């Protein structure tokens, strides 16, 4: 956690934010006394490309959720909305533009742009690289990976389902774009499963500590607020450059656990890193209100999850 006096120093703020520590201190401050145990893998599976990128079919995997008009605010400025969460893998066509939102996850609501879908779902940028001939094809479907705190469920249910759908679409490589802290873990675990089964992957993310701790085969790190990992918002050229860096990794990563840091900056002033889940910036009154809000969201999310499991059963 950054201390108050560090806000005046350029050095610490230019380093990647420690999301595991920040999240742990946040929830301890809200009264949850059992810190979450993040997935840890010291090594990673690694599949080398079997063909040139210009011949590959590339798929997108996202943790953003389809807009649901009956689920409350989900657009720019929306608060955390657990009603909009999803707990099953979903798919959608890539020949049209879906309406995906990120209000259901723990993004940086003070700094991340919630309006520019290109900042978290790089389909338009992927179409540009297809037109340039850099990739062979875009898979006919994109896929949604549930943001599941249960690592076991991710590995035993969601990852195999995603692999099945990618194989149905003849996919050679997958680009995974997470949003919140747990999303970063989810996408890393899915990427590991896909690599173990012959599909080349790259995670495009903003939570460096979580992805590297979980052991991603390839990781493009963008020092952006959570929710904007696909490039600077409202800047299509930044998003295209970011995607091309991810494709560079697909082609040229020398081995497992390769991290490439994007040179793209959110803005020259890095003080935005002081904002995300910083319990030390909250008054006692704010903490009390946040505790009540977090508990209500937890109960609602649990009910949605239980209803989903009943439907599956």
TrEMBL record:
Lineage: superkingdom: Bacteria
GO molecular function: oxidoreductase activity, acting on X-H and Y-H to form an X-Y bond, with a disulfide as acceptor
Name this protein carries in UniProt: Glycine reductase
Source organism (scientific name): Falsigemmobacter intermedius
């Amino acid at each position: 956690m950054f201390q108050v006096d560090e806000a005046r120093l350029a050095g610490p703020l230019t380093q990647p934010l420690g999301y595991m520590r920040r999240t742990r201190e946040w929830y301890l401050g809200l009264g949850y006394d059992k810190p979450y145990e993040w997935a840890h893998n010291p090594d990673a599976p690694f599949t080398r490309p079997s063909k040139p990128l210009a011949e590959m079919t590339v798929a997108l995997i996202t943790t953003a959720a389809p807009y649901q008009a009956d689920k409350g605010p989900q657009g720019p400025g929306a608060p955390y909305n657990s009603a909009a969460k999803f707990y099953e893998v979903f798919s959608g066509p890539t020949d049209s533009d879906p309406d995906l939102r990120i209000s259901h996850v723990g993004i940086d609501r003070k700094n991340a742009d919630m309006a520019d879908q290109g900042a978290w779902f790089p389909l338009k940028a992927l179409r540009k690289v297809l037109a340039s001939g850099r990739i062979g094809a875009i898979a006919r479907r994109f896929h949604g990976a549930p943001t599941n705190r249960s690592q076991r469920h991710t590995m035993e249910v969601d990852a195999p389902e995603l692999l099945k759908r990618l194989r149905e679409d003849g996919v050679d490589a997958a680009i995974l774009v997470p949003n919140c802290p747990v999303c970063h873990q989810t996408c890393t675990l899915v990427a590991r499963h896909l690599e173990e089964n012959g599909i080349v992957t790259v995670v495009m993310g903003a939570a460096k500590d979580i992805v590297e701790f979980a052991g991603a085969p390839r990781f493009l790190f963008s020092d952006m607020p959570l929710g904007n990992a696909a490039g600077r918002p409202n800047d299509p050229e930044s998003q295209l450059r970011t995607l091309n860096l991810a494709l560079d990794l697909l082609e040229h990563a020398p081995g497992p656990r390769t991290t490439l840091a994007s040179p793209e900056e959110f803005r020259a002033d890095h003080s935005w890193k002081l904002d995300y889940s910083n319990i030390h910036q909250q008054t006692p009154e704010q903490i009390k209100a946040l505790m009540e809000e977090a508990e209500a969201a937890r109960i609602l999310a649990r009910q949605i999850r239980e209803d989903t499991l009943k439907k599956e059963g």
